Amino acid sequence: MASIEPTSAIQSYTESMLPHVSRTFALTIPSLRQPLRQEVGLAYLLCRVADTIEDHPEIDRTKRDFLLGKFLDFAKAPAESKPWNAFLDAWPSLESKHHEDLVTHTPELLAGLDELSEKPAHAIRECLEEMCFGMMTFEGRQSGRVVTVCEDPDQLEFYCHIVAGTVGILLTRLFAGTMGSNDWASATCLERGRRFGLGLQLTNILKDHESDKERGVSYLPPKYLVGGEAGAAMSVDGSKKLLDRTLGHLRAGLDYIQSIPVENRDMRLFCVYAHHMALATLAEIGGSKPGGRKKISRERVESLVSRAQSVVDTPDELAQTTELLFDQVAMHIIG
């Protein structure tokens, strides 16, 4: 396994890996100041390791839980090599070279937590613990060749909390630490950040439903699918209900963004980028035919980025721009 030197090399690795595992975070994380950029980048890649374990197509629940447990063991004591040796002995390689590279570099990434200040490192470890233990609670039900992960809307909500709401809470804590204001990270603010994460995750689940089915997984409860069958397309009614639920969370996300003091432009911009791209993606989903395009184009991304940069410092202009994006999605719910 290649060796990565502490701090600057870990940061370099993080920046080089992000475009290969997340187009959105590769765009948003560089907007943050240091050391927040390093904290968020490292946290995202470690969360991505957990997600890669959960999504591995060739492991059953028992092996998944074993691997997640070993990952957590190592996260708590990165200097101890035995838990990671046990992990590697049980790990089946992935075809995706970038995700495989990410997993094999996990010890260096975890060691990078020791380069951070105590509070952000502790917050990241807490997030990883809740995420991994939460992933272990999902068993999934096989129906034909498709595994249904979430049986009902409450399970879907909990799944989104585990994989993304936890990240929204973590970001709030990291932002507050950088601001030097623990008062900002109130219970209300933490909940808004959590719901922002839920909105982003639901958007991804809606966007990726067809490709997930192709690999034999469905995160959407059967009640939202044609005929209530696993592996089916979203029904018209199901799509409208899911879009409405997602918009509710993204409404809380807008409140979250507006609560960030305007002098923290980097944090506001980080969130606005993700928020506006999610809304634009939902509009694509609402307006697409079954099997049609559900990703926003590169030109659309560039337009959203440019507009976000011009309105992020002015709360009223930001609200007006965002309302137009909400309206574009709402048309598909009403129609």
Automatic annotation (TrEMBL):
<protein>
    <submittedName>
        <fullName>Squalene/phytoene synthase family protein</fullName>
    </submittedName>
</protein>
<dbReference type="GO" id="GO:0051996">
    <property type="term" value="F:squalene synthase [NAD(P)H] activity"/>
</dbReference>
<dbReference type="InterPro" id="IPR008949">
    <property type="entry name" value="Isoprenoid_synthase_dom_sf"/>
</dbReference>
<keyword id="KW-0808">Transferase</keyword>
<dbReference type="InterPro" id="IPR044844">
    <property type="entry name" value="Trans_IPPS_euk-type"/>
</dbReference>
<dbReference type="InterPro" id="IPR019845">
    <property type="entry name" value="Squalene/phytoene_synthase_CS"/>
</dbReference>
<dbReference type="GO" id="GO:0045338">
    <property type="term" value="P:farnesyl diphosphate metabolic process"/>
</dbReference>
<dbReference type="InterPro" id="IPR002060">
    <property type="entry name" value="Squ/phyt_synthse"/>
</dbReference>
<dbReference type="Pfam" id="PF00494">
    <property type="entry name" value="SQS_PSY"/>
</dbReference>
